[in-house]
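Appendix B. Raw example, untouched.
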Amino acid sequence: MVSDEYGFFIDPQRCIGCKSCVGACAECGTHKGRPMIHLDEMDRLNSTQTAPTVCMHCEDPICAQVCPADAIKRSEDGVVHSSQKPRCIGCQNCELSCPFGVPIVFSGLEQMLKCDLCYDRTSEGHKPMCATVCPSQALLYVPKHEISAMRQNKPVREFTVGALKVKTRNALMVPDPDKPLHLDAALLLAEGGW
């Protein structure tokens, strides 16, 4: 079981685009050489800014809600796991529904795999692979009570996606936690945000 005392914090402002997290994730024993983390490029024409994207481990995971085979489970410690191979039918509902764009249905496997917080490691008290190698500490796995002393940015675990409110286990570090984070592409387009 993963300790509730520790939190996983993503600080995209610190990401330097080195892809160490992607390489380390692929080395995780349960991932079979496939990285479960994405490194997104924000505005490639005008900026070198990148941001790591990992599963946020929603309290009420939408991916599990839309799975017709009931293949996606959330454990008592709040970790949302990859689909169970015998049950997953590769329908891609989880890919389409995730507000963070995390699950991937791998062709050939016909199974959804995603970040599971390196459960084989974190359940034994170790850091996830990505957090062990991140040179800029854009990815942190530390006791929750220590984060405020380490960073000016504040952790956010509640997001708005359209009319949906999403609460997560993992936190995104932001400069102003009182400014709502809207993760709705249509809203961003309407406001001229892209």
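End of appendix B.
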